[in-house]
Amino acid sequence: MGVHPRALDYPDSLLPGPIPDESELTSGTRIEAGRSYGFFTDTTLCIGCKACEVACKEWNALPADGLALSGMSYDNTVKLSADTWRHVLFVEKAPRNDIGPPFQAGWVMMSDVCKHCANAPCMESCPTGALFRTEFDTVVVQQDICNGCGYCVPACPFGVVELSPADGKAHKCTLCYDRLKGGLEPACAKSCPTDSIQFGEVDTLVERAHERVAELHRRGATDAYLYGAPDSPGATGGLERLNAFFLLTERPEVYNLPAAPDRPADRIAPGLAAGVATVAGLALAAAALLAGGRRA
């Protein structure tokens, strides 16, 4: 991306205060209300350093967890949770002795996060309006409105939302809503040393992601594809688009992602129709039995 010309205005290491629209310097993106922002995560660039996990916990004051060995490679946090809003997935594949040194595992790593779906099932299921869509087209939980009902937990097709045992309320990634309001790039993307996590306007990120896939295909990595971008796996079942989407090289299930996620709201009408039909069938059967009993 190169250095933004505005960076020349701030040559000193110590600054008197925050830089206005700092995200323009760090990610090439000026943050403005009314536009859609998100993440493009390129798993081919992830080195598993966990800088994003640490930055997320530090900025959001989330408690440490997963301090014990999990038995899942170097993955100590294991999954997204109320206290882990960024989770670096480690998958050690079978050795590939046909390339590289023998007995070396083929690593697959991905930094997972809330997808901030265009049609967010968690938000649709919330009875109190605690989950809302911000002026940046991201989905956030208002803790003072959340009543801890937990309806959002099973509604999320990606298993992102979780109730905290500390306060009984739902918690998840906010895409650093407070930082966006201050013109700052989200902490995880800003801390990523390889630009595996890229922040920006969603439409711009989708274009960049398609270019990256084409580049990888030219290099021979024909297994690269997008997950969650429009008209791709992950953007299925009425979800339309994930504002946090991914470039993958393995099946979605390898990354603990559903192959074809959908919105539970789309199952309400068919489920209700099936229930009504069942009740009607039972009523007809009962009527037939009663009529038969009278004739006898």
Structure, explained:
The strands form four sheets. This protein has a four-stranded mixed sheet with strand order 8-1-10-9. It has eight helices and ten strands. Strand 4 (131-133) and strand 5 (139-141) form a beta hairpin. The longest helix has 28 residues, at 268-295. The chain is an alpha+beta fold. The model has no long low-confidence stretch (mean pLDDT 90). It has helices at 23-26, 51-60, 121-125, 152-155, 177-181, 187-191, 202-218, 268-295, and strands spanning 37-42, 87-92, 107-112, 131-133, 139-141, 162-163, 170-171, 197-201, 225-227, 244-248.
**What is the number of strand segments?**
10
- One letter per element, helices H and strands E, the order comes to HEHEEHEEHEEHHEHEEH
Low-confidence segments, given as residue ranges, are none
Coarse morphology: globular
Query: What Rg do the Cα atoms give?
Result: 23 Å
Strand residue content: 5-15%
**What is the typical, i.e. mean, pLDDT?**
90
- Largest sheet, order of strands side by side? 8-1-10-9
Structural class: alpha+beta
Helix content: 25-40%
Number of H- or I-type helical stretches: 8
Q: Main beta sheet: strand number and arrangement?
A: 4 strands, mixed
- Spatial gap, N to C terminus: 87 Å
SSE topology:
Elements: H1 23-26, E1 37-42, H2 51-60, E2 87-92, E3 107-112, H3 121-125, E4 131-133, E5 139-141, H4 152-155, E6 162-163, E7 170-171, H5 177-181, H6 187-191, E8 197-201, H7 202-218, E9 225-227, E10 244-248, H8 268-295
Parallel strand pairs: 1-10
Antiparallel strand pairs: 1-8, 2-3, 4-5, 6-7, 9-10
